[in-house]
Backbone:
């Protein structure tokens, strides 16, 4: 998949026509308009679409529940099961690798920085991202009683609303690209798919070709539903690598916004962790994931961990996928997210760190962060 810098520059000028038309009709209606209020209450796939919504909004809702002609539902489900088998590890990789990796894109980071919610409340961003991933990766996520389609629609419309408001308030699209443009969207999709696979490999997991193909296919379909142009979607590892490398070469550079977002994320990890000094450890883990070049862009220490030592932090949980129950793995990740949400809301205390006495630690026991 050869995509030139000129191609990416063109992608930076393109948004999401379907979602942008839908959100324009949404904001043209008063808050009290019945169809708008009805949409705000929609949560599950089986909930009725607002019948009185204008045609552009109806079209958006209809098209975003249609499977693309090339989708392989069996392969999609295999990708979902793969996620369940590694759910907690994937969530960790998203937090410590995928999300901050996106901050290296200077113009995209500027959009995120403009959102006070993301800049000042990174914990909310983490939990919202985790909830989105768990909704679309639920074993039955696209059946009527679940939320997969609605999660995709709500986030896609959220992105359209950011484009709408920033453009309305003087965003310089010529200088910085359209807010949340096709290059940004392709990069985010790669971060949730290909970068996660890279992160698992860096942790020492040996993944099969079929496993990687399935997981990438799942994110190829999800990316399609999220409005990413098909020319930036792939389920082939070599093409995913080429896409990620060419996008990084075209868009990654040091920026105040990217470094500030990374620091905000690390500060939250320090404040929310029961482990003393975890923020510094997380900083080094991020650096090890990123590599020296991207770490430097984000203002992370130039030295993470010695090459090849990152897997030591996850040794206790690195097991063969055949010994993992994807349903159990999914629900463990779900329970962890619910605890995190309660702590953020002040409805539960922050977990306490307990130092085990020496006599309780078994010989050769290792602790996973």
Residues:
């Amino acid at each position: 998949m050869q995509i030139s810098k000129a191609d990416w520059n063109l992608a930076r000028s393109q948004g999401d026509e379907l979602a942008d038309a839908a959100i324009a009709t949404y904001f043209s209606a008063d808050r009290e308009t019945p169809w708008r209020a009805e949409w705000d209450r929609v949560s599950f796939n089986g909930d009725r679409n607002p019948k009185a919504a204008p045609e552009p909004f109806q079209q958006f809702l209809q098209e975003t529940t249609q499977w693309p002609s090339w989708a392989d539902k069996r392969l999609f489900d295999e990708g979902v099961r793969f996620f369940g088998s590694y759910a907690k590890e994937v969530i960790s990789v998203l937090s410590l690798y995928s999300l901050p990796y996106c901050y290296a894109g200077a113009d995209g980071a500027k959009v995120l920085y403009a959102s006070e919610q993301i800049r000042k409340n990174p914990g909310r961003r983490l939990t919202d991202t985790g909830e989105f991933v768990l909704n679309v990766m639920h074993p039955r996520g696209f059946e009527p009683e679940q939320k997969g389609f609605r999660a995709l629609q709500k986030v896609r419309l959220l992105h359209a609303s950011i484009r709408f408001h920033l453009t309305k308030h003087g965003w310089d699209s010529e200088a910085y690209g359209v807010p949340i443009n096709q290059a940004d969207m392709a990069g985010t999709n790669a971060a949730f798919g290909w970068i996660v696979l890279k992160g698992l490999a860096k942790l020492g997991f040996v993944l099969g070709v079929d496993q990687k193909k399935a997981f990438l296919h799942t994110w190829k379909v999800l990316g399609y539903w999220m409005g990413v142009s098909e020319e930036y979607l792939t389920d082939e590892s070599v093409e995913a690598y080429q896409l990620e490398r060419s996008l990084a070469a075209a868009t990654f550079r040091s920026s105040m916004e990217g470094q500030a977002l990374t620091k905000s994320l690390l500060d939250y990890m320090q404040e929310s962790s029961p482990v003393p000094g975890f923020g510094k450890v997380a900083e080094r883990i991020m650096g090890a994931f990123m590599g020296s070049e991207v770490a430097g862009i984000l203002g992370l220490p130039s030295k993470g961990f010695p090459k090849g030592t990152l897997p030591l932090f996850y040794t206790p949980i690195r097991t063969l996928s055949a010994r993992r129950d994807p349903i159990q793995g999914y629900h463990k990740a779900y329970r962890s997210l619910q605890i995190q949400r309660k702590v953020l809301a002040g409805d539960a205390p922050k977990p306490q760190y307990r130092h085990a006495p020496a006599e309780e630690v078994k010989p050769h026991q290792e602790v996973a962060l």
Q: What stands out?
A: Residues 5-312 form one domain. Confidence is low (pLDDT under 50) at residues 315-322, 355-369. The chain has one domain: 5-312.
